[in-house]
Write a structure and sequence with these properties.
It contains five helices and no strands. The protein is mainly alpha-helical. Helix 1 packs parallel to helix 4 and helix 4 packs antiparallel against helix 5.
Length: 115
């Protein structure tokens, strides 16, 4: 039986699996998977998705979907189906993967010759 917090908002035990499947099989050339699109596809609001993250299994699926989305964006940028500059911007703002997240940009390589 749903709790008062989730009553009327469509939460069920299958929701984490539905979300994971949605992200895993998303293939729309005109866009990328998002939690808002998933929410709309199952009759929820984006706020519901955030609220359901308090459930351990759902939060685990949420984090896995976030990784799928990140990979989807990277793959589309590498194939130039999405604008690489915009994908870089998204990744740096949403996932902290930009240049500003790399405090040490210099790379030092040391070779040791062993006889």
């Amino acid at each position: 039986m749903p709790s008062e917090k989730t009553k009327g908002r469509g939460f069920d035990r299958d929701l984490p699996k539905k979300m994971y499947t949605y992200f895993l099989h998303f293939d729309d050339a005109s866009g990328a998977p998002s939690f808002g699109k998933f929410a709309a596809s199952v009759g929820l609001l984006p706020e519901d998705i955030e609220k359901f993250r308090e459930k351990t299994k759902f939060d685990c699926a949420y984090r896995a979907c976030n990784e799928i989305r990140r990979d989807y964006l990277i793959d589309r940028a590498l194939c130039r189906r999405f604008d690489p500059s915009f994908v870089k911007f998204l990744l740096s703002t949403e996932f902290g993967m930009g240049e500003e997240s790399q405090p040490d940009r210099d790379l030092a390589v040391t070779f040791e010759v062993v006889k």
